Amino acid sequence: MSTGLPLWLKLLDQTSKIVTTLTAAVLLYTRSAGVAYFVTGAVLCAALGKLIKNAIRQERPLQHSGRKVTYGMPSSHASTCTFFATYITMACLQLPVHPALPSSAMFAPVIVLPWTFMIVISRVRLGHHTWPQVAAGTTLGACCASFWFKLWMDDTAGVKTTAWEVEGMVRSWLGQ
After folding, report:
1. Where are the transmembrane segments (predicted)?
2. Residue 117 in contact with residue 111, Cβ under 8 Å?
3. Position 1 in a domain
4. The pLDDT of residue 1
5. For the chain, how many structural domains are there in total?
6. Which domain does 55 fall in, by range?
7. 142 with 86: CB under 8 angstroms?
């Protein structure tokens, strides 16, 4: 990371750490099966992105950072953060706020959507990806989130019912 970068780009270059920490905090705080399901979907989307990336093997923009060479198509950051933004927005529009969270949590898209936009832009500005690579990542993330959310809403294969049963068992085990 170059020291000549604007502060906002330096911060956005640390997105993985920030998002992982915030996600873990929400999961641990709510102990929600729905949040665990969401996190599982995000991890699966990231894994699918890595598989596609290794199949396509398109190089990143030329970098002289000395970092290990990895492929750039699709952008993993773009796919994962777009998964987050899409899923969170759909959840806020169609699901009740989890009881452990304040009612203001329904306004999460007001923060998540612009943050995602900034992350996607930063991947190109930082020289990590090209525009087509972040466009592919964004498309992958939106498609994965839409599919994953539909599975939850339709209770496909009893996924939602099972998750709620597991959440109830965990809560009783924890004495809540």
Report:
1. 35-56, 77-97, 103-121
2. no
3. no
4. 46
5. 1
6. 7-63+70-162
7. yes
